[in-house]
Amino acid sequence: MPTAVISPTATTPPTTSQNVVKMVGLVLISIGLLGILVAAVGADYLSPVFTGLGGTAVFTVGALLYIWQSRRRKSPAEQNHGLWQQEATSRGASAWVIGFVLTGFYVLLYWFPDTLQGLIQAMEPLSQWLRNRPSDQWFLYGTFYTLAVLIMGVYALLKYRNSRYHIIRTISVMFFQLGFAFLLPGLLLMLNQPEYYFSYFWPLKYDYLFPSTIEYLVRDGAALGVFMIFWGAVFSFLATPVLTYFYGKRWYCSWVCGCGGLAETAGDPYRHLSDKSRKAWRWEVAIIYPILGFVILTTLFLWVNSWSEGRLLGDLSGGFAQTYGFFIGAMFSGVIGVGFYPLMGNRVWCRFGCPMAAYLGLLQKYFSRFRITTNGGQCISCGNCSTYCEMGIDVRWYAQQGEPIIRAACVGCGICAHVCPRGVLKLENGPREGRYAGTPLISRDELRILD
Amino acid sequence: MNQIKAQEHLVIIGNGIAGVTLAQRVRQRSDCRITIVSAESQLHFSRTALMYVYMGHMRFQDIVPYADWYWQEQKIELVHDYVERVETSDKKLVLREGPPLHYDKLVLATGSSAAYYDWPGQTLKGVQGLVSLQDLELMEANTAGIQQAVIIGGGLIGVEMAEMLRSRGIAVTMLIRDKLYWHNVLPEEEARLVTDHIRQHGIELLLQEELQEILADDAGRVRAIHTRSGKELPCQFVGITTGVKPNVEFLKGAGIEIEKGILVNEFFETSQPDVYALSDCAQFRNPAPGQPMMEQLWYTARLHAEALASTLLGDRKPYQRGPWFNSAKFFDIEYQTYGFVPARFTEQQESLYWQNEEATKAIRLLYDKKTAKLLGINLLGVRYRHDLCHHWLQQGYTLHDVMQELPAVNFDPEFFQRYEEELLSQYYTRFPDRQPPVKHSNWWELRKRFGLFSDSTSC
Ligand SMILES: Cc1cc2nc3c(=O)[nH]c(=O)nc-3n(C[C@H](O)[C@H](O)[C@H](O)COP(=O)(O)OP(=O)(O)OC[C@H]3O[C@@H](n4cnc5c(N)ncnc54)[C@H](O)[C@@H]3O)c2cc1C
Fold first, then answer.
1. Are B111 and B14 in contact (CB under 8 A)?
2. For residues A4 and B355, is the Cβ–Cβ distance under 8 A?
3. What is the DSSP letter of B258?
4. What is the pLDDT of residue A433?
């Protein structure tokens, strides 16, 4: 019988060498941040490439060191220790500061990009190397975004290291962000092709099926452009229903999507901040479905307009599209969606705003084999599942009644099943027959949260 | 006549899982007036989750399963008060603060609190158990800034307390009477695996050791303990986790028969008409052979409540627990058990046991040697499907039947490594003339074939 070797692990108090590594990490993070700051404001005095790009690199190394040391020291069950007691993760002062800084960054990015000139210049060599063209604010944004997903991807990998599901899923979002949302679009530009994101589809990338985009892709992209149109249309109307039928919404929202990728990595420390109340759920359905409707209508209007060569609707439909772009594209998905991570949780956009999530959600609820099964009568109502649900689903409501969880909002991240101290939940795909039926081992309420 | 009428008043003392489940199930099919009186908290909370509040995984409001609106909409009245006395002759409750309350039917679901065994020094500051919300608040105060703690008793609450204290970096020593942790319940191999795992988490385990006395400093706080074998362990906190005792003191003089707990029959009826008791505070008068006198678990609380609700609603059914099950977690290792696996086997019992090399996972299938009937399952670090295990035990499967359906029982997350192969190969070595199944069984097929789902689809 093999018995365990008693090894000094995980939980023994941190030794000095561990503290040293963490300290070095913190020093590097600080130097990196200073470098980035100098690039932003002092481009006239020091080369922003040196301070900005160099600072970013130093920051990355420092962050990885720090994350490595602090996560590895904790065993899997200890990863959430103190989350509701530390300022940064419980809407304390530092959470507000991070929230304001992030929000401010989005405001500058969308409406005052000139203020970011130093940082944009800092990315110049990278932009030239990857895309063979000058850096701009969107390249700066893409670089930071991808780095955030990669660095915090390492964090998620370490935090959930005892679960193969989470390891594979985290690698997947890191891969799609780096490959499909950063390198490939850059490469396309280098080859003088239209910039195209193969991992984003209508209705999330609402303009991918606008007549103007299609026209441009055909004109500038020739055969490749036609392929892009084909790819986008097939994914929106064929692959999405089929994949969602087999695997639920998760194949996209927590495996492929870039917004989801950021939420699952950089946003992970904030997942418990989502609002679980019935009121929040009411807001959710009152906002997300109208947005989906708005995207569908806008797209239809634009097509009607284009077929009638502008005679039928005049410039109205263009106005429609611009309004959407401003309020939903910029304000909602960026400023509130990411800027408010430390205050409202990491899936505000996905939960209240994303039209793709709404579309996938409807498919998941009514036309899918996916469900989260509750294991018989084993739930002890502790509430970890609901607390750590980034979509604000009251998972416990169903689990304590022995029912499967089938909710349009569920992105299938699987963290509820991971934090459950009794292993009561399992994400699985099975026959649709009897999909909503619960265990015979518990009797239950007939009451529903939302009528 | 047990059935409650629409104009009658059902009063429940205790808003724990037993009390609220009873209220919910009765409300589902009756319009009677329902009131829950409870002293500990306004709203029902999950006692099992107290540790997560201390460790900062959740806040108190997160361990409250039903919000205010739920009770209002269900028309279940909540009274946050302590019942001083029950006057069964007048069917009246005397409350500490509010006016007296009349009942037509009374259910006692008063739970339990930490049991002490008259150790010298057990009332010192820094000595406490962990059962109630007040205990949690006290523990917060008692452990602020301390270095060392000692936990007395090697059960489930003890290990939870150890995990809590470790989360604050406090050095923990546990005194355990047996030669391994929880060895009065777990067989040797499982107990050893868990014992080693707890040690790897930095907990010092003193095995075959008991508390002698608790020593005070000048301020009346605990400063150290003496063990039976004469060791002195300095500590600023002593956790008492040697079991619980029913909350029944306030019932003295109410004419309700009480032994350890409130004595009830298999319908949860006490010695007084229209007064019932269940869960942690109840004690069965005549438990069936081999069945426990008291059942003090979350799961059994719910089962008691479902059975009593049925009786109160006019469908008088004796309580039958069905196959036993339970689960727990020891730091990183989950534990599930189905049926009955004793700590020490008899001559007629034999088992298949598998454990991985790192000693973090184990599976045991216990069966009767003669008939091969499945008796119980122990799992560490591996999850099985409750519905299917229940079905196996209920239907009296033999080990051979079980092996045919083994692949369908796993409940681990997707992509996890599976261990059936290793268990099966052990099985075929032991029973060489058995044939491998013709076809791998699949959970969804079995679920349909055996009807392992409810008809109601309320979500
Ligand atoms: C820390 C801890 C962890 C646990 N973990 C598990 C687990 O993982 N799995 C498991 O199966 N079981 C577990 N248990 C056991 C389980 O929690 C209990 O068996 C269960 O909660 C009992 O429920 P109950 O409704 O009978 O009583 P309780 O939940 O104790 O509720 C009784 C309520 O009645 C109130 N009350 C008592 N007397 C009066 C009065 N005179 N007037 C007014 N109010 C009164 C009490 O204040 C209390 O709030 C755990 C217990 C503890 C303490």
1. yes
2. no
3. B
4. 93
- pLDDT per position as a tens digit, B142-151: 999 999 999 9
- Report the atom number in ligand 1 closest to the C-alpha of B112: 30
Q: Which of residues 64-123 of A touch B (CB under 8 A)?
A: 75-78, 80-86
Q: How many angstroms does the Cα of residue B112 sit away from the middle of ligand 1?
A: 6
pTM of the model: 0.95
3-state SS, one letter per residue, for B13-41: ECCCHHHHHHHHHHHHHCCCEEEEEECCC
pLDDT of residue A423: 96
Per residue in B290-344, pLDDT tens? 889 999 999 999 999 999 999 999 999 899 888 999 999 999 999 999 999 999 9
Domains observed in chain B: 9-113+245-312 (3.50.50.60), 127-242 (3.50.50.60), 325-450 (3.30.390.30)
* B167/A82 CB distance under 8 A: yes
Q: Which residue's CA lies nearest to atom 41 of ligand 1?
A: B83
Give the tens place of pLDDT for each residue, B258-304: 999 999 999 999 999 999 999 999 999 999 888 899 999 999 999 99
- Condensed to tens digits (0 to 9), the pLDDT of residues A101-117 reads 999 999 999 999 999 99
Chain A neighbors of B312, CB-CB under 8 A: none
By CA distance, what is A379's nearest residue in B? B299
Is B200 part of the contact surface with chain A (CB cutoff 8 Å)?
yes
For ligand 1, whether the C-beta of B301 sits within 6 Å is: yes
ipTM value for the complex: 0.96
Length of chain B: 459
Residue indicated by tokens 């009131």: B35
Long-range own/partner contacts, residues A37-44 (CB < 8 A, 24 or more apart): A39/A118, A39/A119, A39/A121, A39/A122, A40/A116, A40/A118, A40/A119, A41/A118, A42/A118, A43/A117, A43/A118, A43/A121
Interface of B with A in 102-141 (CB under 8 A): none
Nearest-neighbour CA in chain A from B112: distance (Å): 17
Within 13 A of A335's CA, how many CA atoms are on the CB side? 14
Structure tokens of B109? 């679901």
In the three-class reduction of DSSP (H, G, I as helix; E, B as strand; rest coil), residue B330 is classed as strand
Which of B46, B106, B280 is the pocket-test mutation for ligand 1 (most atoms within 8 Å of CB)? B280
Residues 414-453 of B with CB under 8 A from A: 414-417, 443-444, 447-448, 451-453
When pLDDT is cut at 50, 70 and 90, the band that residue A12 belongs to is very low
Distance from C-alpha of B49 to C-alpha of B250, rounded to nearest angstrom: 27
Rounded CA separation A414/A371 (Å): 11
Report the C-alpha gap between A380 and B36 in whole angstroms: 21
Q: What is the mean pLDDT of residues A128-136?
A: 96
What is the C-alpha separation between B282 and B264, in angstroms, rounded? 7
